[in-house]
From TrEMBL:
Pathway it works in: Amino-acid biosynthesis; L-leucine biosynthesis; L-leucine from 3-methyl-2-oxobutanoate: step 2/4
Swiss-Prot/TrEMBL keywords: Amino-acid biosynthesis, Branched-chain amino acid biosynthesis, Leucine biosynthesis, Lyase
Organism of origin: Escherichia coli
Aconitase A/isopropylmalate dehydratase small subunit swivel domain residues: 3-79
Protein name in the entry: 3-isopropylmalate dehydratase
GO BP annotations, alphabetical order: L-leucine biosynthetic process
Length: 86
């Protein structure tokens, strides 16, 4: 069980999307391992990159904006409201 925390201080990324599908968060092609860690590189892969290999960043996607590099909290609308990135 994860340790509870009282306070988290970090940079918040506003994701202007509601009811984000879990396949958008971590696309199925990256869910081929047993562990529950190490998915960060593939977070929103299909939205973050313009090519299938994940080498050409989408400049219009919020997680690629320079001001949000190193962010640890993702804030969205609807069912996915708060996601701890760190």
């Amino acid at each position: 069980m994860a340790e509870k925390f009282i306070k988290h201080t970090g940079l918040v990324v506003p994701l202007d999307a509601a009811n984000v599908d879990t396949d958008a968060i971590i696309p199925k092609q990256f869910l081929q391992k047993v562990t529950r860690t190490g998915f960060g590189a593939h977070l929103f892969n299909d939205w973050r990159f313009l090519d299938e290999k994940g080498q050409q960043p989408n400049p219009d996607f919020v997680l690629n904006f320079p001001q949000y590099q190193g962010a640890s909290i993702l804030l969205a609308r609807g069912k996915l409201r708060l996601w701890l990135l760190a």
